[in-house]
Design goal:
29% of the residues lie in helices and 19% in strands. The chain has 329 residues and is an alpha/beta fold.
Length: 329
Amino acid sequence: MQTRLLPNLGEPSLEAAVEAAAAILANGELVGLPTETVYGLAGDALNAAAAARIFEAKERPFFDPLICHLPDQAWLDRLTLIPASMRPLVEELTRSFWPGPLTLVLPKRPEVPDLVSSGLPTVAVRRSAHPLFTAVLERFGRPVAAPSANRFGRISPTRASHVLQELGGRIPLVLDGGATLHGVESTIVAVDLERGELRILRSGPVTHEQLSLFAPVHLPQPLSADQPEAPGQLKSHYAPRTRMVLSAEAGSGAPLSARCGLLAWREARDGFAAVEVLSAAGDLREAAATLFDKMRRLDAAGLDFIVAEPVPAGGLGAAINDRLTKASA
């Protein structure tokens, strides 16, 4: 299969790209699309055969559930069964953060294929704020399942070129919407039915501090077994092919190898074969937006291994450190 890349060159080409993507989705095939977080591999969320193609293209295990992206708010009640006790909190969260990088895990309706939810009684749902992604969903008229558009466990794609590197020849089409805004995947939250609490299943751009304004929040807990409730929960994930080590003392001593690279938080240091700095200004938003791109550059540099520095833990730092920890697992 040859993968086409359609760049966004203005209104006429945008319309043609949206039309082409919607037609491919309607045929049960897959499209690489930009969201505001990372690029997603989109397929019809209500078509089990399309979902199976997503798992096949990504080489993703079937026990790892997919996120359903909704064309509009009305689809929330068409895919989920929200108990009356949960609805006020769900409505507050969606009113505050949708469209945007917050995914909610809610009880699912039977219309959601078991393959999409990995057999769980819940489904993960969100609405993307990316205009190109939104335009495709509006034209298609149905929700799509759209995990990150990369091979399973590898570095998530933040540019169309990354999708081609990962899935070229496996899918028919990628739409180029430029570099993504946030650079890390959405925050995933489960609402506790009994206690009215929120459980963060995956850290992301919507922070613990923001969510705590709506309800008590519990941070992510380690999995006791390989049965995640949501994507991105497995111990090893987002990993470069080159071995990576996470260390707070990353730049304090001499490299352990002549072919050692450094993924630095704020300052480049001498003595490393390759160095990428997440944000010289100490800006966590900049660090998140460039994290996966800079990991890819180091991964392509022919290194023996990569040493990465953690970032400050508050706010968006929790999501960045989560990705670094799993990439080095």
